[in-house]
């Protein structure tokens, strides 16, 4: 895929989501088929390189363009999306690495989708003793500890693991995607995205040589940057919202169409707000509270949309073969995905207070 006009690129991605990902999503969600076909289709379309430099075969998409692409993929198949999206954070980390040998080896095949990477770093958001401790061993680092969340085990060729040193550095290293006595993985029992190879990692004296060290940076600065970038929220929740609205729009009854129209207006407004916040983020003028409130509003809109779809569909919507219940579960997942203290506080703040005598809330 060439570096197209942003609108054309989003439209092409949406076509893939509609024609390839969405028809297989129920089977992937239930573990009846792996996400391989969807991942290969995204790779063939050049969409594994949206965060990569053009010089390495990437698209070097702008933040706003990338968010529209992510939302489109998220509207197709949540499980395929969740494996695919982990990869882009690793590309961003790798492209800024000073380890030229690793960059030369991996960045181009990662942009092509020939090599898939997973990542584990959410534990860095927790204060207190490091979940994974990094200790200098010669020119490399030894990892010890527990990462409670990583996706793509059994799918990714390697993982980018973040650990904290005793001198408040964040250390990023490459770890092969295979178990060893020093690296073990335990599957997580999840109600959604259950077939994405999501595991917890335990590191017991794993030593990453110098050649596998991606970056070493200041931990406090990383946390400040992560807090700012995570505040706006996961755009895939907008994709889930869009899919629920589109399914409502296909219903024959007037009530469903009316609800879909109101929800569509709200989604358009959320996207306008999203664009404004991303501009502010790029210019480093972002307001964390406003961004977190937007994240919470997107989550509520997704829940309103998937609830409306379930109501319109009726009992059949709860069948595991029906997309209505899957979209509702995916909307729930984004409540905790990339959740920081700011996001949690905003979500709790946004819970409406409804007087018992008041009419029900508008969908």
Can you put this structure into words, describing what you see?
Helix content is 50%, strand content 16%. The protein folds into three domains: 6-115, Butyryl-Coa Dehydrogenase, subunit A, domain 1 (Orthogonal Bundle); 118-218, Butyryl-CoA Dehydrogenase, subunit A, domain 2 (Beta Barrel); 231-349, Butyryl-CoA Dehydrogenase, subunit A, domain 3. With 363 residues, it is α+β, with helices and mostly antiparallel strands. The relative contact order is 0.11. Strand 2 and strand 3 (140-150) form a beta hairpin. Strands 1, 2, 3, 4, 5, 6, 7 and 8 form an eight-stranded mixed beta sheet that branches. The longest helix is centred in the last third of the chain and has 29 residues, at 254-282. The two termini are 39 Å apart.
Give me the secondary-structure topology.
Elements: H1 6-29, H2 36-44, H3 63-74, H4 78-95, H5 100-112, E1 117-120, E2 132-137, E3 140-150, E4 158-165, E5 169-176, E6 183-187, E7 199-208, E8 213-218, H6 219-230, H7 236-249, H8 254-282, H9 288-313, H10 323-336, H11 341-349
Parallel strand pairs: 1-4, 2-4
Antiparallel strand pairs: 2-3, 3-7, 4-5, 5-8, 6-7
Q: From the helix content, strand content and strand pairing, which structural class follows?
A: alpha+beta
Number of strands: 8
Estimate percent helicity: 40-55%
Put simply, the count of helices is: 11
Top CATH class of the largest domain: Mainly Alpha
CATH topology of the largest domain: Butyryl-CoA Dehydrogenase, subunit A, domain 3
User: What CATH architecture label of the largest domain applies?
Assistant: Up-down Bundle
At the fourth CATH level, what is the homologous superfamily of the largest domain?
Answer: Butyryl-CoA Dehydrogenase, subunit A, domain 3
How far the N terminus sits from the C terminus, by CA atoms, comes to 39 Å
Largest sheet: 8 strands, mixed
Mass-distribution shape = globular
Q: Which spans of ≥5 residues are poorly predicted at pLDDT below 50? A: none
| Integer-rounded radius of gyration | 21 Å
Integer tally of domains: 3
Tell me the fraction of residues in β-strands, as a range: 15-25%
Residue-averaged pLDDT: 94
Succession of helices and strands: HHHHHEEEEEEEEHHHHHH
